[in-house]
């Protein structure tokens, strides 16, 4: 197994349609993901690997053989990058999903700090789950919440993981445009009268000479210098060029705390857990005289108890199987930015937080899912700095 590090740079925008059909309440209008999902990136790289195999062997691959030959293309971490065109990619160009434990009020970003609920206080819901009811909830600062940007800068996120609030709200949003296209008749290859449709295209070259890209850590079945070359990414297989990047682009930043009384894990990429929002490895057990979610985490010493989970609305992913020419089963993911809070069962602090940087968590790690960012958390802290 060989590992390649590169940046994918779409040259003509990017269109990644979501699972909603064309004939909904918005007839003729498509809906796109805000940013390419890891599974989309892996699919494009598997296609590029298959094309390279056919070129080397000078023969075509049938769909079943293509699927088997490209299974060894694994995706590691996938980063969002934004740089000036005259600079080489570096860690300072990384952007991160907005953490779910952040709240903007009156122009300031506040930290949502989970605390135990008073006795007798419950929540509204359809499930009577005492372990769920025992999860801690954050207190809400006074004021009307304001919308947060989609991405945070490297500096803002590093401070957030240390337990400090950023001064700025985040990075600028990528530009988007709407393309209007004509539907073609499959038999005549001519335009269908009155059949127009729209696509939402993400612009990757912004004003002021700024470029958006995807940083990719990719495992390959064998060493392949020059891979991947030009890649067809997203709808219409728009070309994306590849540029090698240093391995340090995926390394942990300086200044991360080495120890913490509690552990806060923020998803850098969407995660796929077997039981929806609940992380794998946790089971319902008695803890401190009450039901709780207790278990182990990859790379974490000792047993842990889940104290809080701040999880946005789930992502429902519908994809198409190119080999079988049929839709795959819909999967439900936890979105990037979700925050989970843990304590050790034995009450000891957590150590070696840097080793958890971009570690894999949950199902389908070969698709780049479940990459986490470790952060400091003090369960006794009650203020909102």
Automatic annotation (TrEMBL):
Gene3D superfamilies documented for this protein: 2.60.40.4350
InterPro entries: CRISPR-assoc_protein_Cmr3 (IPR019117)
Protein name per UniProt: CRISPR-associated protein, Cmr3 family
């Amino acid at each position: 197994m060989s590992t390649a590090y590169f940046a994918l740079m779409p040259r003509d925008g990017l269109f990644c349609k979501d699972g909603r059909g064309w004939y909904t309440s918005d007839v003729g209008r498509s809906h796109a993901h805000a940013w390419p999902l890891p599974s989309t990136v892996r699919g494009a790289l598997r296609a590029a690997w298959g094309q390279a195999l056919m070129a080397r062997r000078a023969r075509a691959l049938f769909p079943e053989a293509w699927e088997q030959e490209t299974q060894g293309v694994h995706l590691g971490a996938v980063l969002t990058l934004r740089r000036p065109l005259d600079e080489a990619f570096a860690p300072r160009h990384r952007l991160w999903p907005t953490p779910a434990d952040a709240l903007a009020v009156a122009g300031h970003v506040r930290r949502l700090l989970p605390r135990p609920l008073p006795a007798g206080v419950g929540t509204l819901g359809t499930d009577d789950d005492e372990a769920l009811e025992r999860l801690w909830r954050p207190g809400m600062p006074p004021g009307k919440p304001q919308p947060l940007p989609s991405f945070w800068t490297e500096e803002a996120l590093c401070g957030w993981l240390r337990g400090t609030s950023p001064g700025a709200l985040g990075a600028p949003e990528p530009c988007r445009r709407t393309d209007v296209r004509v539907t073609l008749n499959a038999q005549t290859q001519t335009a269908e009268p009155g059949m127009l449709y729209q696509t939402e295209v993400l612009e990757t070259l912004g004003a002021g000479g700024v470029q958006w890209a995807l940083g990719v850590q990719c495992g390959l079945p064998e060493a392949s210098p020059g891979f991947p070359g030009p890649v067809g990414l997203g709808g219409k297989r728009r070309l994306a060029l590849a540029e090698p990047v240093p391995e340090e682009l995926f390394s942990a930043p300086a200044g991360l705390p080495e120890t913490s009384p509690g552990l806060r894990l923020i998803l850098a990429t969407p995660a796929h857990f077997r039981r929806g929002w609940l992380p794998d490895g946790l089971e319902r057990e008695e803890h401190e005289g009450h039901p709780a979610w207790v278990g182990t985490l990859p790379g974490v010493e000792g047993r842990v108890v889940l104290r809080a989970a701040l999880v946005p609305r789930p992502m429902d992913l519908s994809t198409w199987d190119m080999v079988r020419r049929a839709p795959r089963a819909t999967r439900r993911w936890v979105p990037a930015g979700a925050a989970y809070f843990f304590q050790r069962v034995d009450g000891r602090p957590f150590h070696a937080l840097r080793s958890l940087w971009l570690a894999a968590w949950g199902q389908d790690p070969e698709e780049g899912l479940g990459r986490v960012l470790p952060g400091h958390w003090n369960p006794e802290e009650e203020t909102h700095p």
